[in-house]
Write a structure and sequence with these properties.
About 65% of the residues lie in helices and about 10% in strands. By secondary structure, the chain is α+β, with helices and mostly antiparallel strands. The protein has one domain: Outer membrane efflux proteins (OEP) (Up-down Bundle).
Length: about 425
């Protein structure tokens, strides 16, 4: 008989593989109990310290500081040398009538242009810092998302291991019934096929878990994760604050903070544009040597362009329009953020209700039904099909509860990200 007996070694091996949480897929030989567990706080700390995008954003701050310092410099002095009346014809063919002038000149900026350029540079540096903060917030949110998905994968593997254990028990009962002549070999084959299919699902989840671990570790620049599992309870559902309280905290959204910094830049640019209405003047002074008399004389020049006010007006109008547009852009973004917050909040309410209904009411009833069918199947009161249907129903309900819990945490991470939290997903720690 082909399936006369399922060796105990096979059952133990299957459970070891399914509960190893990726040891085979990643090349590790550590078991779950011995493997180092990654916490969310540790994952976030590693990402913030080593993520290439964050490092690049910090360099952008230094770039803006360098630009500000360069623009804050005053206009340079210019040294000029001028030689006239030489290498000509007849009497001026040599240097006897040459005039040599040494001149030092400088443009004097009027209207506090240098100070306004510095103000624009300071605001640009502030924006670069805000952008760095925004990227850090986005990174912590992404770490939390991938961490939550890893927790979900681990729980899926536990469910797969439970399904294998149920399949093993069912197959053993069927084998005893076949040996006693109370069941057909067709039922035994069906039970064996169902068990093998469950084992395949568990193996596929192992490979998915290995890929998810790499996906998390790449956020701190590593493709070889030094952990085999993450620590946390995805079934811990924290209470929800009132929606009005969350809506008030939207003012802390990093995008809205960015709008405030951009407004500061625009106001500084407007003042700089207004300062260009005043013309700069260029002063020059120096010494001239007259070769004919071997005398020295002072030279001085003054220059100032006309029409500076007219040329500055388009720049002033441009900045005025940008300043007028900013409140509308900010209001539009705020409305979108409120809409997103409300949608995520409704999702949280739905997931929370679904999870507790499944966890407290439906799943316990389904567990009682499975126990009833298992006893009846052993006694011959129910068929293998009825028993399998009840077992699959229970496992499907547990998967639904897991999905509701995972979706709840992912929605909560999005809400915390909208509110500018530097530690989204804190409920998973």
């Amino acid at each position: 008989m082909r399936y006369s007996k399922l060796p105990a070694r096979r059952a133990l091996l299957v459970l070891f593989i399914l509960l190893g949480l990726g040891a085979t897929a990643s090349g590790s030989v550590e078991t779950t109990e011995l493997a180092p567990a990654m916490t969310l706080q540790e994952a976030v700390s590693r990402a913030l310290a080593n993520n290439p995008g964050i490092k690049a954003a910090k360099i952008d701050v230094y770039i803006e500081e360098a630009r500000r310092d360069a623009n804050a410099l005053s206009t340079p002095y210019k040294f000029q040398t001028e030689v006239e009346n030489f290498a000509g014809t007849d009497n001026v063919s040599g240097f006897d009538f040459a005039e040599t002038t040494l001149r030092l000149s400088k443009v004097l900026e009027l209207g506090d242009k240098r100070q306004y350029r510095t103000n624009v540079g300071d605001a640009q540096v502030g924006l670069a810092r805000i952008e760095t903060t925004v990227q850090q917030l986005e990174l912590t949110a992404e770490v939390s998302r991938r961490y939550a998905n890893l927790l979900k994968r681990q729980e899926q593997i536990k469910l797969a291991a439970e399904s294998v254990a149920i399949g093993n028990r069912t197959l053993e009962v069927v084998q005893r019934r076949v040996a006693a002549g109370r069941a057909s070999e067709a039922e035994q084959s069906s039970a064996a096929v169902a068990l093998s299919r469950t084992e395949l699902i568990g193996q596929r989840l192992e490979f998915e878990l290995a890929g998810a671990r790499v996906g998390l570790s790449t956020l701190w620049g590593s493709t070889t994760p030094a952990f085999t599992r993450v620590d946390g309870d995805i079934f811990l559902i924290p209470p929800l604050p009132a929606y009005a309280e969350l809506e008030k905290r939207l003012a802390e959204n990093p995008e809205l903070l960015r709008f405030s910094t951009i407004s500061r830049i625009q106001n500084a640019q407007r003042k700089l544009a207004q300062s260009r209405r005043r013309s700069d003047i260029e002063l020059s002074a120096g010494l001239r040597h007259l070769a004919t008399t071997d005398d020295m004389a002072m030279v001085f020049s003054f220059s100032m362009p006309f029409g500076s006010s007219g040329r500055a007006e388009p720049l002033v109008r441009e900045t005025d329009m940008a300043i007028a547009k900013m409140p509308m852009t900010r209001e539009d973004r705020l409305l979108n953020l409120k809409s997103a917050l409300f949608s995520f909040y409704q999702m949280l309410l739905a997931d929370r209700s679904e999870f507790y209904t499944l966890h407290d009411q439906i799943i316990p009833e389904a567990e009682r039904a499975v126990r009833f069918y298992e006893r009846g199947f052993e006694l011959g009161s129910y068929s293998l099909l009825e028993l399998t249907a009840s077992q699959e129903s229970l496992l499907a309900l547990r998967r639904d509860a897991l999905e509701a819990a995972a979706t709840y945490h992912l929605a909560l991470i999005e809400v915390e990200s909208l509110l500018g939290s530097m530690s989204p997903g804190g409920a998973l720690q």
